[in-house]
Amino acid sequence: MAACWRALCQISEIDVSVLAFAARTETAFSDQLMQGIPCKLLDLPQRQDVELIKRLVIAESPDIIVIPGWMHKPYRQLAFAAELQHTAVIMTMDTPWWGTWKQLLAPWFLRSYLQRMDQVVVAGERSWQYALRLGIEPAKITRGVYGIDYDAWAPLWEKRLQPQWPRSFLFVGRYVPVKAIDVLVAAYQIYRSQVSQPWKLVCCGQGPLESQLQEQPGIENRGFLQPTEMQSVWESAGAFILPSRFDPWPLALVEAAAAGLPIICTDACGSAVEVIRPWYNGLIVPQENTIALAKAMLSLHQQHANLSLWGKRSQELAAPYAANIWASRWRELIHSVHQTKVVKSNTTSDRLANNFG
């Protein structure tokens, strides 16, 4: 997102101000990633301070507020602040439609909040389906929440060709249950038992399940690395694996595609709908299926001669999510929402004048 916000800051007619959580919990991203972006990074107490957050937003006198979803109450309450009643509100969401009872009840609990939205921006097709079921009009739904620093990854495909395509798997993500670290380890050991020269599995991340990666044959745990430290890791990988149990729209998968890697992922990964085409640039397997994941690893091992072609196709599918394209998409959205809000406000003012004049 830092790359996307930075690209948006380059558009002269848009003033960007970002309110975000400082990375001090499950991730350890450096605050330097936000350098050059007007922002306030909230620590743990601040992110729960309703009045502080409202004051910070009101101080900007925004024409438009973009709120991520509905899970964080202090952000959600901004939609009802009297001081911001003339401000347009855009909600973003990446939650996929699964048909759970909570999702079925959500339109009732969120009705007043969703009615405040001037536009809803979804991550992909699965969250578009959920937005519809929340009762949002199709004309108010736009695709394109996320983008990536495509230019940083694009050169890696060509570098990977020399001297020959690497023979290794790469996992990048949190070491937590939803990422199915246990399934990954078990599947990898099955794969190792089926080949005479198994590829290594490199893992980058952090989390409570890190111990499951330790002292496992063929698994190399690199821990958490900053994006600037990841370039050599992406370059030395031969294929990317994401075995998640739940992953609304994982950016790591899109970044792997931008880096020119063939991809193995589960059907729980929402962004696979947009950037994975089975047996074209990757493989999609059922979640929680250790045997299927091991078989997919074996298939890529046997497809080594074709992996450079698969990787090039991945880049083509990831290209629409480049930060500059993201910024252009949001520029048009911001102008459209602002113009519509101005027209509505003028119409309301005219009606009040007629009623009381």
Q: Helix segment count?
A: 15
Strand order of the largest sheet: 9-8-7-10-11-12
Please tell me the overall pLDDT.
Answer: 93
Poorly predicted tracts of residues: 348-357
Write the CATH homologous superfamily of the largest domain: Glycogen Phosphorylase B
The radius of gyration is: 22 Å
Shape: elongated
- Span from first to last CA? 48 Å
Run of helices and strands: HEEHEHEHHEHEHHEHEEHEHEHEHHH
Brief description of this entry?
The chain is of the alpha/beta class and 357 residues long. The protein is 40% helix and 15% strand.
Chain-wise SSE layout:
Elements: H1 2-9, E1 18-21, E2 39-42, H2 50-59, E3 64-68, H3 73-76, E4 88-93, H4 101-109, H5 111-115, E5 119-122, H6 125-133, E6 141-143, H7 150-153, H8 156-160, E7 168-172, H9 181-193, E8 200-204, E9 219-223, H10 231-236, E10 239-242, H11 251-258, E11 263-266, H12 272-275, E12 282-285, H13 290-302, H14 307-318, H15 323-356
Parallel strand pairs: 1-2, 3-4, 4-5, 5-6, 7-8, 7-10, 8-9, 10-11, 11-12
